Amino acid sequence: MTKGVFVTGTDTGVGKTVVAVGLVHLLKARGLDVGVMKPIATGAKRLNGKWVSEDARLLMEASATDDPYEMINPICLSTPAAPSVASLREGDHIELTNIWGAFKTLRARHRFLVVEGIGGLLVPIDGKLFLADIAKKMSLPLIVVANTSLGTINHTLLTIEAARRRRLKIAGIVLNSPDGRQVIGLLDSNKKEIERLSGVPVLAVIPHIPKEDRIRLRRTTLTALEPLLGLFHQDILSP
User: Fold this and answer.
1) Contact (Cβ atoms closer than 8 angstroms) between residue 112 and residue 4
2) Which of 29, 86, 167, 190 could disulfide-pair with 42, CB 3.0 to 4.6 Å?
3) Nearest to 226 by CA among 19, 61, 36
4) Mean pLDDT, the chain, as a whole number?
C-alpha cells in the first residue's frame, strides 16, 4: 500500500513544488490526512527571525498542518546552492539524523506523506550522499517532474537511469512548463518518446499558465494532476 510519494525533478526550477502542492490539494479534497516534508532546502529567506524555505512554506500552507516547521524542513540553509556547497559556505554541518527523525515522526502522524526533494537526484547532500540516497532510505515511489523545454528527453532519461541504478521505484513522470519554453508542436512527440525509451508512464502534462493568473493556474494544474490519484490504492483515498 502506497502511503507516500517522493517528488523529484530533472533539474531545479522544473516545478516540483507546483506538483507537490497540487497533489496535496487533490488528496486533501478527498478527505485524506496528508503530511508534507521538504527534508533539505537552500536559498531560504529570513522571516520572523528564522530562515524559511518558500517551498516548505507552500507545502505547509497546502496541507494546513500544525506540524512544526522544523520537522517539515529540518535542514534549511540560506545559500542558494547545492546542500553540500551551502553547508560548507555557512559552516553548518548537515545532521542527517534530524531528517530521519522527522521523517519517521511525520510518517507515523499522517495517513499519507508528500516529500519534495531538492534539485535533482544527484544533488550532493554532504561529502558522501546524494539526494537519491535519501530517497532510497525513505522507500517512497518517485514522481519525476521534467520541464517541457528543449532537452527534456535527455534530462528525463538521465534521471530515470540514475534512479534505476539505485533501485528506486519510479511511479511516473509529470511534464511541466513553468516558463513556457516548451518546443512548439513537439510536446506530444517528446512525451511518447520518453515513455517508449524509459518504459515509465507520463502521468500528467501541465501547460504553461502565467503566474499572475493564479486562479487559472491552480485550476489547470489540479485538473492536469488528477491522473496521479490512480497511483494510490482506493483505501488510501477513502476517508
Assistant:
1) yes
2) 86
3) 19
4) 91
Share of the chain above pLDDT 90, in %: 73
List residues with catalytic annotation. 38
Q: What CATH architecture applies to the domain 4-231?
A: 3-Layer(aba) Sandwich (3.40)
The residues spanned by each domain of the chain are 4-231
What is the pTM (predicted TM-score) of this model?
Answer: 0.92
> Is 50 exceeded by the pLDDT of residue 101?
yes
User: In whole angstroms, how large is the CA radius of gyration of the chain?
Assistant: 17
Would you state the torsion angle of the CA atoms of residues 98, 13, 190, 155, taken in this order, to the nearest 10 degrees? Answer: -60
